[in-house]
């Protein structure tokens, strides 16, 4: 007997969650420390406030920050600094498609 209502196999959702957890940088370790510091590619935060240099991951979060911290100044999306555009454009190093893969692309 297998037990009470226990699935015999892993579900696609469970496998996808495990793959996502294994391949996504959650911010731990030395790589996460560099990522959080914002030195390489601006870290997790993509946008920077032009007034106080606070970073945010998306435009909506930046608008919330702006409304809370700078209520007298009108919000202008064009003035927000995109940190990833600055740093990603500079790097021309090719990245492998699969971790540890050194396949030659022909």
TrEMBL record:
Region: Disordered; residue ranges are: 1-44
Q: Where in the cell is it found?
A: Cytoplasm; Nucleus
Give me the Gene Ontology terms describing cellular component. Answer: cytoplasm; nucleus
**Keywords in UniProt for this one?**
Cytoplasm, Nucleus
Q: Where is the composition biased (Basic residues)?
A: 1-11
InterPro entries referenced in this protein's UniProt entry, alphabetically: MBS1/2-like
Q: Does the keyword Cell cycle apply?
A: no
Keyword check for Transferase: no
Top-level taxon in the UniProt lineage: Eukaryota
PANTHER family reported in the protein's UniProt record: C2H2-TYPE DOMAIN-CONTAINING PROTEIN, GEO09665P1-RELATED
Query: What protein is this chain from?
Result: Zinc finger protein
């Amino acid at each position: 007997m297998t037990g009470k209502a226990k699935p015999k196999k892993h579900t696609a959702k469970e496998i996808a969650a495990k793959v996502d957890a294994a391949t996504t940088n959650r911010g731990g370790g030395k790589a996460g420390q560099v990522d959080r510091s914002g030195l390489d590619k601006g870290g997790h935060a993509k946008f920077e406030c032009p007034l106080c240099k606070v970073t945010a991951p998306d435009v909506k979060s930046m608008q919330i920050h702006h409304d809370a911290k700078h209520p007298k100044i009108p919000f202008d999306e064009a003035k927000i600094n995109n940190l990833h555009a600055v740093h990603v454009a500079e790097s021309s190093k090719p990245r492998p498609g699969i971790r540890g893969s050194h396949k030659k692309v022909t």
